[in-house]
Amino acid sequence: MCACFGPSLALYNPGEPYPLVARAYELISRCTVRDFASELEQRKQAGLYRTRRLISGPQQPALVSDGKPLLSFCSNDYLGLASHSGNLDALRNALPDTGLGGAASHLICGHHEAHHELEQRLARFTGRSSALFFSTGYMANLGVISALAGRGDTIFSDRLNHASIIDGCILSRARVRRYAHGDVVALEAMLAETSGHKLVVTDGVFSMDGDIAPLVELARVCRAHDALLAVDDAHGIGVLGPHGMGSAMEAGLSEQDVPVLIGTLGKAVGTSGAFVAGPELLMDYLVQKARTYIYTTAMPPALARATVASIDLIERDDARRAHVMALVDRFRAEATAMGYELMPSRTPIQPIMVGGNHQALALSQALEARGLLVSAIRPPTVPDGEARLRVTFSAAHTMEDLEQLLGALSSCRELLTQEGAEV
Ligand code: PMP
């Protein structure tokens, strides 16, 4: 914490706001603990500066950014359900009954029957005994990991796990051992030399690469070494497995194999929030111990109703999954033929590997000039030297949309092969 932010720094004075704000800026710029301005400048020089894009209108797949129409290939709305009319109706219809806000945390008076119904639906959908609804996937991972492991325990975490898993591990105060991406042999060696409580945690589908964790093997070594396995299937739920039940069910793994299954609802499900599913005993324990569940306002109950509607749709509509997979197959064949480097992914996450940060930004900008929105993903989200364009597909995309992307990629390929090209 910067030492110069003294107790006298009150920014808000209705009679005289501007001198106080100016004083705050002056203090920040004089602060010797950290030079914020030059850190930001360094980020810009390295091509790592992050900006936010202002979007208007419904989000998928055509959107308006700064008044300009763009076709988006970078959202996680894999099934095109974020703007589905049935889900919007479910939300609208629920509001008179539930009101808007969650009003309090679940343990005070915020646990509405709509939340309860959603939890039961999520348990049935994932083939688990019970489920617990969290406000976001980030909070689910923080809460679940820090509740299930603590001082003296050991967590084993895949090197490419999502930031929220990494932060959950840090928060737990357990010893953390990271194993090479997907390397079950390395994990097993670590498990064999560790005593005490062990928690293994992995993404089901890796968010920046699109590949799937070796879940069958992970379940086997966890069983052999008495480790609890937690799978964050944020990008598999709705997309993989029978009726979209996720990567664990695609691999034929039951609650005994994967006792802790985490999923998010803001991606393929198209709403917001997250859940953990598993044995009732575990859910009971999490209600007592998961601080990000206990100390936060419950999600709007109407959103829970819309989420149930969306899950009903996911379960009965296999055509959406088939369509998005057909887009993926065609994209992979064409982009590879053009000479783009892809990752070994069979999910709607199809990164184009570029390497340099500036190069990735240049390719993203070139696509934007052609009416397409595809974000450049740079370190620290991905390892140094592995900047990429994270192309994602949605059932809301048509084959014509895909043709437009392929056409643009074809012209941009030539631009990028020119020496030092900055488009
Ligand atoms: N886990 C993974 C693997 C993710 O990719 C994300 C978000 N991108 C999260 C958790 C966090 O989920 P949420 O956006 O609901 O906070």
From TrEMBL:
UniProt modified residues of type N6-(pyridoxal phosphate)lysine: 267
Principal EC category: transferase
Keywords, alphabetical: Biotin biosynthesis, Pyridoxal phosphate, Transferase
Gene Ontology molecular function, alphabetical: 8-amino-7-oxononanoate synthase activity; pyridoxal phosphate binding
Pfam families reported in the protein's UniProt record: Aminotran_1_2
Aminotransferase class I/classII large domain boundaries: 70-409
Required co-factors: pyridoxal 5'-phosphate
Classification via SUPFAM superfamilies: PLP-dependent transferases (SSF53383)
Sequence positions that bind substrate: 50, 162, 381
InterPro entries per record: Aminotrans_II_pyridoxalP_BS, Aminotransferase_I/II_large, AON_synthase_class-II, AONS_Archaea/Proteobacteria, AONS_Proteobacteria, PyrdxlP-dep_Trfase, PyrdxlP-dep_Trfase_major, PyrdxlP-dep_Trfase_small
EC number, as in UniProt: 2.3.1.47
Gene Ontology biological process terms, A to Z: biotin biosynthetic process
Matches recorded under CDD domains: KBL_like (cd06454)
Catalytic activity: 6-carboxyhexanoyl-[ACP] + L-alanine + H(+) = (8S)-8-amino-7-oxononanoate + holo-[ACP] + CO2
Domain of life: Bacteria
Pathway: Cofactor biosynthesis; biotin biosynthesis
Binding site for pyridoxal 5'-phosphate: 137-138, 207, 235, 264
Biological function: Catalyzes the decarboxylative condensation of pimeloyl-[acyl-carrier protein] and L-alanine to produce 8-amino-7-oxononanoate (AON), [acyl-carrier protein], and carbon dioxide.
Family to which the UniProt record says this protein belongs: Belongs to the class-II pyridoxal-phosphate-dependent aminotransferase family. BioF subfamily.
Known partners and oligomeric status: Homodimer.
PANTHER family: 8-AMINO-7-OXONONANOATE SYNTHASE, CLASS II AMINOTRANSFERASE/8-AMINO-7-OXONONANOATE SYNTHASE
HAMAP family named among the record's database cross-references: BioF_aminotrans_2
Protein name, as recorded: 8-amino-7-oxononanoate synthase
Lineage per the UniProt record: Bacteria, Pseudomonadati, Pseudomonadota, Gammaproteobacteria, Pseudomonadales
